[in-house]
What does this fold into?
Amino acid sequence: MSDIIIDIGGEIFEAAFETEAAPATVTRFRELMPYRDRIIHVRWSGEACWIPMGERDLSIGYENATSYPAPGQIIVHPGHVHGVSETEILVAYGPCCFASKAGQLAGNHFLTIRKDLDRLAKVGRSVLWDGAKAIEFRAK
It folds into this structure.
């Protein structure tokens, strides 16, 4: 079952919230929707793309946190918690160890794309080689 649509540069993916595992993160993200931004390729984390959110305070702590999101898993780093890295959303499309210039990080796994992971990887590689793309999270 999917809850939302994620549009990355015109490529459409369906995703499901991890409501039981990350209830506070899911609730906060729902408040932000529809959410539109730009997505760029990570620098240190492997095969993933990220949405830098700067100093934005999401007023959430850690829950269902991981440093190793699997392909299709979407995590959010509540940057203000430790001040090590900014607030950000990361979309894993391949092997990934979430990190910053300060070292390994963890983020709340709150959303999952379960289908079309091969297409997600193609989009991720396109962000790497072709540059930033528009991204939108919206209700299904």
Remarks:
- The helical segments are 23-32, 117-130.
- The chain has one domain: 4-139.
- Residues 62 and 125 are 29 Å apart (CA to CA).
- The longest strand covers residues 88-96.
